[in-house]
Amino acid sequence: MSVPGDEPLKRHPSLDDRFDPAVLIIEHDPAWAVRAQDELHRLAEALGPVAVRLDHVGSTVVPGLAAKPIMDLQLSVAALEPRARYVGPLERLGYLFVPEPDSPDFHFFARPPSRPRSHHLHVCQSGSEHEARHLAVRDFLRANGDEAARYAALKRDLVRKHPQDRLAYIAGKERYMGDLEARALRWAGRPPA
After folding, report:
1. Helix axes 31-47, 84-92, angle to 10 degrees
2. Which residues of 13-35 are buried (b: 16+ CB within 10 A; e: fewer)?
3. For residues 163 and 20, what is the distance between their CA atoms, to the nearest angstrom?
4. Cα separation values, 28 from 66, 80, 97, Å
5. Which of 9, 149, 157, 160 is the most exposed place for a label (fewest CB within 10 A)?
6. Is 95:145 a contact under the CB 8 Å cutoff?
7. Which of 4-18, 32-46, 82-96, 139-153 has the lowest mean pLDDT?
């Protein structure tokens, strides 16, 4: 028996959107940390005990790292199912659920529902590889300024070559990100799966 709101996942069409005016790299803004904390507070109030852990992850949390002006946040939950425990409250906060059936072990939400977006929210199970990966990359980049500078250079180069092309930007970072995640997990004492 399925829980209302937990219908089978269908791929969200926005995953295939190529154009995104927010695919631009700007210098780090210290106000990003304040905006992220404000949003994490809103999420905590709306989700209550469903939120096992809430974190600011991604490039905007790394001091000095140039980034897209989109806050990446992570919500860790005890279990991904039933989704109704968090989908409804997140939608009421203005988040769009962007399901990807090929990735059933984490979920993605975006705010506002239309582009350009200001927030990306990654939902994963507490203690999962996805939770560990985001936290390890965040901490690794914060501790390694040279790596953060290399990452910023790659992002700037991709945006220069593919202005506002979200899919080319993602594809261009894929190999680097796989390597970065593996190194960050080893650095954090958690070998990649």
Report:
1. 130
2. ebeeeeebeebbbeebeeebeeb
3. 9
4. 5, 32, 27
5. 160
6. no
7. 4-18
Count up the domains in the chain and report the number: 1
pTM over 0.85: yes
CA-to-CA dists, residue 78 to 49, 56, 146, angstroms:
10, 18, 35
**Per-residue pLDDT at 102:** 85
Measured on CA atoms in the order 185, 35, 97, 155, is the torsion positive or negative? negative
Instruction: Please provide the size of the chain in residues.
Output: 193
- CA atoms of 96 and 64, how far apart (whole Å): 29
- CATH code, 176: 3.30.460.10
Segments forming the whole domain that contains residue 84 = 17-187
